[in-house]
């Protein structure tokens, strides 16, 4: 079949777009597999996994392993909380709530706020909390506790909150879309058969929306995994892997930084692959149950 000129023009445009989108990532992956004499630019000087082995030795004073564990732990916590809060909010918004519109706009407002402003605001808020706590300890004469007190800023406090301001709006919007298409007749049938509200949710609603819940989990983890701006001012005295990687771009002059970028990209790809497999499995399971 002969293709028109418009087809080839659109095909070339699409190919250029894909190359522009994924070309930088592929370039970094290729350069990370250079030999010991490799540099930061082409041409490629040998092929090996030398620079991946160098990661285990650390990059200067940076503990890559500790930063990786912090990012994985924070991403997992954000993922779980995003799923739980989004699911509960989706269920709640199915009913008429007072000030529902106001609450919705408050939740999604963080999507349009500049990320660095959100980070600065959260950091300032927790510094004010530090001031109140230190002032209270001083008034109570608890000098030993005051001397040992550091800061309320940390992975499980301010950083976690900062990441949730980014992930929760996405999770909530997905849940709204899911429940807008959900047929309540299934729940009514379950109640007619004597199922309790929990049993109806557990055995009817949750299996039908399981693939969407898995998608929210993927969004929660991946958005947290590579977040920099909202983390920078709200994390305290430690760094996540993306922050360490950003700092290393000005100090590391070997392909080891490319190897680190390849590892972080691989983690994201693994998460997305697992998510797609789970979604496909849940969809097949739902089809079998309806058959």
Helix share, percent: over 70%
How far is it from the N-terminal to the C-terminal residue, by CA? Answer: 40 Å
In CATH, what is the homologous superfamily? Answer: MetI-like
The helix tally amounts to: 12
Find the count of extended strands (DSSP E, 2+ residues). Answer: 0
Q: What's the layout of helices and strands?
A:
Elements (H helix, E strand, L loop, with lengths): L4 H27 L18 H8 L6 H29 L7 H9 L6 H25 L3 H6 L6 H26 L4 H8 L4 H29 L3 H4 L8 H8 L7 H35 L1
Helix pairs in contact: 1-12, 2-12, 3-7, 3-9, 5-7, 7-9, 8-9, 9-12
3D architecture notes:
With 291 residues, the chain is an all-alpha fold. The protein has one domain (50-290): MetI-like fold. Helix content is 74%, strand content 0%. It contains twelve helices and no strands. Helix 2 (50-57) crosses helix 12. The longest helix has 35 residues, at 256-290. The protein is globular and about 70 Å long. The chain starts with a helix and ends with a helix. The mean pLDDT is 87.
Features:
291 residues; MetI-like fold; 74% helix
């Amino acid at each position: 079949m002969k293709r028109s000129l418009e087809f080839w023009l659109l095909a070339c445009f699409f190919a250029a777009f894909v190359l522009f989108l994924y070309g930088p990532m592929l370039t970094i992956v290729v350069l990370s597999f250079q030999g010991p004499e490799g540099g930061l630019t082409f041409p490629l000087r040998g092929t090996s996994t030398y620079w991946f082995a160098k990661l285990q030795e650390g990059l200067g004073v940076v503990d890559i392993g500790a930063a990786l564990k912090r990012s994985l732990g924070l991403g997992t916590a954000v993922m779980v909380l995003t799923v739980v809060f989004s699911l509960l909010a989706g269920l709640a918004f199915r009913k008429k709530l007072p000030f529902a519109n106001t609450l919705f706009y408050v939740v999604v407002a963080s999507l349009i706020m500049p990320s660095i402003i959100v980070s600065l605001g959260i950091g300032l808020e927790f510094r004010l909390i530090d001031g109140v706590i230190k002032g209270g300890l001083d008034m109570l004469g608890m000098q030993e506790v005051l001397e040992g007190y550091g800061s309320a800023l940390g992975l499980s406090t301010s950083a976690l909150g900062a990441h949730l301001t980014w992930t929760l709006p996405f999770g909530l919007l997905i849940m709204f879309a899911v429940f807008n298409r959900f047929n309540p007749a299934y729940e009514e049938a379950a109640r007619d058969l004597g199922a309790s509200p929990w049993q109806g949710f557990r055995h009817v609603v949750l299996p039908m929306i399981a693939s969407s819940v898995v998608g929210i989990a993927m969004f929660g983890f991946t958005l947290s995994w590579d977040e920099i701006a909202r983390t920078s001012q709200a994390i305290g005295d430690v760094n996540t892997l993306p922050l360490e990687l950003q700092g290393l771009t000005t100090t590391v002059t070997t392909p080891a930084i490319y190897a680190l970028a390849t590892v972080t990209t691989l983690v994201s790809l693994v998460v997305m692959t697992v998510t797609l497999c789970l979604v496909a499995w849940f969809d097949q399971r739902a089809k079998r149950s309806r058959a």
